[in-house]
């Protein structure tokens, strides 16, 4: 008799406080990248408030300020990816070295081929990172213990001395009961040694389901000639070069703080000049602050693996015209707008008029002072002093 996967997920979570949330594949990728220490390759530039909340809730332990207490805990992490499970939705079970686990579901889970590509990209990103310092050998010991509790006929692969990846599918002939026992051993060992675990249970792909081009979203990959460097200082780390200049990379490990303005209020903060989608441009610019509209500024070049840039959407500002009828005549006031969200008044004309007037006035004053100085320094003509004589001496 096979065990239900829902029963496995609920048995590993000691307390079910609320309904299990369901996230999109892109949000799940950001959570997995944060947990595996790979967030520098995954951008959250256009993430909404709900995505940030899920990342903070399920993204794992935050890095301590200035690296404090990092040497006292293990950096080992085990990723268990189980394909073709007997369930309707994808489930992710996470544990950060405690006796309590959490889980969430993934809506519209991608097929196995896209999952394999995502895992390989995770591995490539992990191998390009500098090796974590392990002075007390906690990470090294945890990796040995992880290998011992997993099935001997399907050993996990260790990458960059910290990430253990265990993959299984229906071809490995594991039933639900065996996987449940393995998960229980891993969770118990994680609570004992303090390493983190991430378990992904993917259902069988449906043959009639429509396949998306990039179900997990877009992210950066390290260049092929990138070399790992062993950092000598904990306080600094060199950014990893990216093979794609498409998106800006944000580091989730360094206490991500993102503030979102009210949709009805003014746009605040620094906004990018380009957005990947039209909806992202309309949402983050509050529809260009009602002073214009979002348009496609230029299309991206290339496609697929040869893609060089993505579509750029931005605000096209429109001047505001206000007419005032005063008796016989009509006055018209035109206000021009600028900025990435058309949220700033364009006063460039007034500015250059003010600057130009100031420069002209300064030149006239300086010329007048110079003319007066030159006139005062000239010698008087000799005719003025010719008829002047001194007093007569008696």
TrEMBL record:
Residues 274-386 form the Vacuolar sorting protein Vps3844 C-terminal domain. Residues 1-18 form the signal peptide. Residues 21-125 form the Vacuolar sorting protein Vps3844 N-terminal domain. Pfam families: DUF6859 (PF21656), Vps3844_C (PF12955). It comes from the Eukaryota. GO terms for cellular component: endoplasmic reticulum. Residues 222-231 have a biased composition (Basic and acidic residues). Residues 210-247 are annotated as: Disordered. The chain crosses the membrane at residues 351-373. Keywords: Membrane, Signal, Transmembrane, Transmembrane helix. Residues 234-247 have a biased composition (Low complexity). This is DUF3844 domain-containing protein.
């Amino acid at each position: 008799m096979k065990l239900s996967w829902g029963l496995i997920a609920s048995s590993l979570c000691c307390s079910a406080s609320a309904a299990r949330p369901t996230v999109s594949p892109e949000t799940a990728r950001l959570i997995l990248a944060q947990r595996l220490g790979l967030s520098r390759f995954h951008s959250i530039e256009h993430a909404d408030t709900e995505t940030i909340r899920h990342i903070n809730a399920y993204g794992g332990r935050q890095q301590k300020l200035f690296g404090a207490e990092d040497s006292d805990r293990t950096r080992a992490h085990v990723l268990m990816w189980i394909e073709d499970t007997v369930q309707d939705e994808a489930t992710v079970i996470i544990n950060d070295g405690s006796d309590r686990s959490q889980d969430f579901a993934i809506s519209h889970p991608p097929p196995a081929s896209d999952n394999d590509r995502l895992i390989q990209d995770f591995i490539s990103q992990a191998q390009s990172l500098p090796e974590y310092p392990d002075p007390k050998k906690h990470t090294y010991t945890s990796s040995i213990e992880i290998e011992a509790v997993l099935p001997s006929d399907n050993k996990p692969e260790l990458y960059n001395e910290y990430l253990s990846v265990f993959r299984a599918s229906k071809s490995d002939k594991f039933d639900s009961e065996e996987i449940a026992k393995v998960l229980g051993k891993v969770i118990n060992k994680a609570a004992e040694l303090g390493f983190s675990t991430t378990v992904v249970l993917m259902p069988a792909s449906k043959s009639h389901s429509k396949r998306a081009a990039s179900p997990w979203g877009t992210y950066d990959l390290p260049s092929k000639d990138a070399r790992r460097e062993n950092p000598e200082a904990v306080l600094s780390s060199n950014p990893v070069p990216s093979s794609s200049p498409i998106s800006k990379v944000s580091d989730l490990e360094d206490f991500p703080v993102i503030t979102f303005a009210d949709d009805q209020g003014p746009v605040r903060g620094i906004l990018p000049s380009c957005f990947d989608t039209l909806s992202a441009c309309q949402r983050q610019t509050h529809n260009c602050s009602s002073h214009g509209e979002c348009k496609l500024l230029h299309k991206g070049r290339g496609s697929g693996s040869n893609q060089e840039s993505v579509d750029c959407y931005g605000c096209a500002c429109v001047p505001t015209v206000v007419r005032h009828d005063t008796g016989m005549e009509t006055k018209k006031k035109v206000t021009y707008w600028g900025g990435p969200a058309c949220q700033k008044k364009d006063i460039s004309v007034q500015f250059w008029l003010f600057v130009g007037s100031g420069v002209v006035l300064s030149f006239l004053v300086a010329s007048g002072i110079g003319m007066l100085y030159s006139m005062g320094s000239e010698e008087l003509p000799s005719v003025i002093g010719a008829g002047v004589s001194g007093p007569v001496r008696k």
